[in-house]
Amino acid sequence: MRIARYTLGEDPTYGIVQGDPGDEWIAEIQGDPLYQPIVLTGNRVSMADARLLAPVIPRSKVIGIGKNYADHVAEMGGEAPQEPLMFLVPNTAVVGPGDPVVLPRQSNEVHYEGELAVVISRMCKDVPVERVRDVIFGYTCANDVTARDLQRADGQWARAKGFDSFCPLGPWIETDLDTGHLSIVTRRDGKVVQDGTTADMIHDVASLVAHVSATFTLLPGDVILTGTPAGVGPVVDGQRVEVEIEGIGTLSNPFIRRD
Ligand code: MG
Questions:
Q1: Closest C-alpha among 143, 141, 117, 150 to residue 245
Q2: For a FRET experiment, which of 42, 49, 206, 254 has its CA 20 to 30 Å from that of 227?
Q3: Where along the chain do the CATH 3.90.850.10 domains lie?
Q4: Which CATH number, 3.30.300.30, 3.90.850.10, 3.30.420.40, 3.60.60.10, labels domain 62-257?
Q5: Is 91 helix (H, G, I), strand (E, B) or coil?
Q6: Where in the chain are all domains bearing CATH 2.30.30?
Q7: Any idea of the CA torsion for 149, 208, 132, 40, to the nearest 10 degrees?
Q8: Are 30 and 192 a contacting pair, CB within 8 Å?
Q9: Which CATH number fits domain 2-52: 1.20.120, 2.60.120, 2.30.30, 2.60.290?
């Protein structure tokens, strides 16, 4: 099931995305599916009339995972960490499909990073690997936008990853997905720049959620970014980046500079 959050010009609404790629429509549901059972309202919404929003606004946190694909570790230089490397992204960085990513004046080197994102369904802590599926609401595409120059300069990654608009999510949440072998492709202005597979993750989704939950209490709507494959690179004013994950869909965002 694909769950979208969207607006027709007023308050955000949730719905189930129906139909084939390129011919989708939305069956509206009542309330927020993270907190109540799914009940259809009977309203049918054309995708052309709806503006998709970030499918979830994390209530408390986005947890990023760094260096989780060996080919990306190699391109960055250095070694893969023994344990998953975690960082935090503020929920104010989250934007939705089609929303502009604003290039900050503090950076001259902003990179895209196409990633699979995991959305947590319930409050949980110390989740064993074999029970992780019980705490996952679904999956969406993410772009873990990174100011690479500030990442190098700061050591800590809060600024480099945390600017407003640096965490596009979408286009919707797929609730039923085997994440073991999904192609993950990033395009910059239509040209493929990352072409990876989730099979190449060093730590798989279950291991990551278990590991993260050993540190943090996870809350409904928290998001875990699972790392990026090789091929990261710069994006400049006026370019568009698409992240397409097999079984989910395509997240597309323009990048702009306002100053
Ligand atoms: Mg990343």
A1: 141
A2: 254
A3: 62-257
A4: 3.90.850.10
A5: helix
A6: 2-52
A7: 20
A8: no
A9: 2.30.30
Calpha distance 67→78 (Å, rounded)? 10
Centroid of ligand 1 to alpha carbon of 142 (angstroms): 9
User: CA 170, CA 138: separation in Å to the nearest integer?
Assistant: 12
Helix (H) / strand (E) element for 193: namely: strand 191-197
Burial of 63 (0-12, 13-18, 19+ CB in 10 A): buried
- What CA–CA distance (Å, rounded) separates 136 from 155? 31
Ion ligand 1: residue ranges with CB closer than 5 A: 113, 144, 228
Ligand 1 centroid, distance to 226 Cα (angstroms): 7
pLDDT tens, position by position, for the chain (259 residues)? 999 999 999 899 999 999 988 889 999 999 999 999 999 999 999 999 999 999 999 989 999 999 999 999 999 888 888 999 999 999 999 999 999 999 999 999 999 999 999 999 999 999 999 999 999 999 999 999 999 999 999 999 999 999 999 999 999 999 999 999 999 999 999 999 999 999 999 999 999 999 999 999 999 999 999 999 999 999 999 999 999 999 999 999 999 998 7
